[in-house]
Amino acid sequence: MEQVPVATPSQEWILMFQADQKVVPKSVWGRFARSRWVMVWFTQLLYYGTAWLQYNGRQALLFDLDTRRFFLGPLVFYPQDFIYLTGLLIIAALSLFLFTAVAGRVWCGYACPQTVYTEIFMWFERKIEGDRNERLRRAAGPWTAERSSRTLAKNAVWIAFAAFTGFTFVGYFTPIRELTHELITFSIQPWELFWIGFYSLATFGNAGFMREQVCKYMCPYARFQSAMFDKDTLLVTYDEQRGEPRGSRSRKAELIPNKLGACVDCNLCVQVCPTGIDIRKGLQYECIGCAACVDVCDQVMDKMGYARGLVRYSTQNSVQQGWSASQMLRRAFRPRVLVYTAVVWILIAAMAMAIVARDDLRVDVVRDRTVNYRLVENGQIENVYRLNLMNASEYTLQVQTSLLGDNTDVKVVDGQALVLNPTESRWVVVHVQADPDSVHAGSNPITFRIESARLDQGRPLSETVEHIDEPAVFLAPR
């Protein structure tokens, strides 16, 4: 039998993996904490409130997957408008680069959904289980009736809030008023129920349990953020020259005779950090720039009678060279920041102009692939096309189809005007006939002209007639 080696007194087991200790942040209040809660209220009112806004008898913001339309107020987008989503994503990416170059991970600290929902869940936790010291005391003791009831109440509130969050998320894809009725009448569809549960579970898990693990290990931004930093990026920094050597002392102790820095080594900056780091060790990728350590350190400095700013938003150049706030801010408008800003605003202006100038009508021309061509009774050659007409406006459109060009021997035989309702998408069959002597054997290029005019109660709203030209091919026998 194989023997298991036993460690002798002179041997020592070395663990190659050390599990992270659970971070239990202490509550803190100050100017940056107030800013975070302003963003919490703003983002959540926007998220939960926008789903209930109505426009012209429908939901103002809706991703209608059944009809493949996206409603944004008076604007209606189709899959063919994917270019606008591409532009929006490019603007978002460049904006993130801009914010990071100026102020580091300010997005993470104040507006990232992970930060916002973690802040909300921790607020529930503090209200039910108490602040850090009280929670740690209970966690170190046995399971009592009080501890069990508080834990159960906390998780119940978390689940309810996460379920409401998931319900609102699905309300952007299924009209939220219809979804509410389905939920009340127990007629909700399986896929809707699945996505409510999935998003609820994701919110509950990320904000309730994983918390800082998402920022430290799952978020890719933490890994490539340093590529966007430079020595003039505004970051949460510890003034080592002023703070060291650190040490505890009474409030009446003088710094110079005792050869002490301003840091009293109270460790509160670590206790309030949502990712559990020590800012005094320098810039670390786990820092999300929330400035909780700045708030608590300023409070300690006030109690000790020292100047604020031992931990503050500053830049590497400012700390090293002792710049004033005005000198530091002047360096914020450096070339890379100006280039990012210019590019972002140019893209925003170009995208806005493109949306304003876009046509109300979208057209896709598809040939009938079952028959290339056919001969009809009058000896004409006929090709059949299917036109997908999409009304991207809130107006009724009168649409008429014809062919562009002077050749009257090639014409649309069923190009009568039709009415397209607001936001309606419709497939229309169009027959094109040609005299055999007027076309070449094989393929002949043609161009459809689709004209549209806005209607109001059956009458033209204006004399302006817009048109779209779509190329196609007319096939003739060889």
Automatic annotation (TrEMBL):
<keyword id="KW-0249">Electron transport</keyword>
<feature type="transmembrane region" description="Helical">
    <location>
        <begin position="193"/>
        <end position="210"/>
    </location>
</feature>
<protein>
    <submittedName>
        <fullName>Cytochrome c oxidase accessory protein CcoG</fullName>
    </submittedName>
</protein>
<feature type="transmembrane region" description="Helical">
    <location>
        <begin position="82"/>
        <end position="103"/>
    </location>
</feature>
<dbReference type="Pfam" id="PF13746">
    <property type="entry name" value="Fer4_18"/>
</dbReference>
<feature type="transmembrane region" description="Helical">
    <location>
        <begin position="337"/>
        <end position="357"/>
    </location>
</feature>
<dbReference type="Pfam" id="PF11614">
    <property type="entry name" value="FixG_C"/>
</dbReference>
<feature type="transmembrane region" description="Helical">
    <location>
        <begin position="37"/>
        <end position="55"/>
    </location>
</feature>
<feature type="transmembrane region" description="Helical">
    <location>
        <begin position="156"/>
        <end position="173"/>
    </location>
</feature>
<keyword id="KW-0472">Membrane</keyword>
<dbReference type="InterPro" id="IPR017900">
    <property type="entry name" value="4Fe4S_Fe_S_CS"/>
</dbReference>
<dbReference type="InterPro" id="IPR032879">
    <property type="entry name" value="FixG_C"/>
</dbReference>
<keyword id="KW-0479">Metal-binding</keyword>
<keyword id="KW-1133">Transmembrane helix</keyword>
<dbReference type="InterPro" id="IPR017896">
    <property type="entry name" value="4Fe4S_Fe-S-bd"/>
</dbReference>
<keyword id="KW-0411">Iron-sulfur</keyword>
<keyword id="KW-0813">Transport</keyword>
<keyword id="KW-0812">Transmembrane</keyword>
<keyword id="KW-0408">Iron</keyword>
<keyword id="KW-0004">4Fe-4S</keyword>
<dbReference type="GO" id="GO:0046872">
    <property type="term" value="F:metal ion binding"/>
</dbReference>
<dbReference type="InterPro" id="IPR051684">
    <property type="entry name" value="Electron_Trans/Redox"/>
</dbReference>
<dbReference type="GO" id="GO:0005886">
    <property type="term" value="C:plasma membrane"/>
</dbReference>
<dbReference type="Pfam" id="PF12801">
    <property type="entry name" value="Fer4_5"/>
</dbReference>
<dbReference type="InterPro" id="IPR014116">
    <property type="entry name" value="Cyt_c_oxidase_cbb3_FixG"/>
</dbReference>
<dbReference type="GO" id="GO:0051539">
    <property type="term" value="F:4 iron, 4 sulfur cluster binding"/>
</dbReference>
<dbReference type="InterPro" id="IPR009051">
    <property type="entry name" value="Helical_ferredxn"/>
</dbReference>
<feature type="domain" description="4Fe-4S ferredoxin-type">
    <location>
        <begin position="251"/>
        <end position="282"/>
    </location>
</feature>
<dbReference type="InterPro" id="IPR013783">
    <property type="entry name" value="Ig-like_fold"/>
</dbReference>
